[in-house]
Amino acid sequence: MRSEPWFVNAIARSPSLIEYSSGLKTLDTIYLDTSFVEDIDFPTKSEGIRELLQKVSRYPADTVFHFQAWTYGYEDVWIALSKALGSKTQTFQIHVDEYKMLMFRSLVATNPNEKFASSLHLCPEAPGLVGFMCGNTYHAGCLTRDETARLHSCEKGNYCTTVKNSSVVWIRPIITRLPDGQTVAELGVGGGGDDLEREAELDYLSPEDVKSLLEA
Ligand SMILES: [Zn+2]
């Protein structure tokens, strides 16, 4: 079953689960995500990131890339790409649409009533994604709303001007290669397949709807 080795180790070491992982107690029920139960080898995320960095580094320094991230879980990839393509003096940033930016910015909580309140990052990737203060110095995150960026993960179907007007190298993540060399695309099996894509949840209002709202 597909599971990152670090995740399995973390479960075994978790203080809440150690009684169970060491056999002292028995769990009544285990719920498993059975999206991938076939006998297929999956590379680890770090192996995938290493392959991606090797490929990306072969392109000229002015190449414009678009990395398709339509589901959660690619935060490490953004941070790794930004670090690999950036320099000591320049943060390499990734252009994202407003929806993704707002979503990741919401992972930083600050008390608005305190002028010098420190920020609380709600997940380990948040500082690398949206920036953080170290002492009195602000360090930018790898995500940006600046369309002049060279790497883009802006919304499918509503690409920014740079992506529309450039010769773009498209990076489409795969989850594994089958023994015959065929690639298996990330389809977001089991839900979450489009949770980073903005979808209108309300239908358009008809003139009748507007009329009934005005009368209400
Ligand atoms: Zn863009």
UniProtKB/TrEMBL annotation:
It comes from the Eukaryota. The keyword Secreted does not apply. Keywords: Exonuclease, Hydrolase, Nuclease. GO terms for biological process: double-strand break repair via nonhomologous end joining; interstrand cross-link repair; telomere maintenance. The keyword Hydrolase applies. This is Uncharacterized protein. GO terms for molecular function: 5'-3' DNA exonuclease activity; damaged DNA binding.
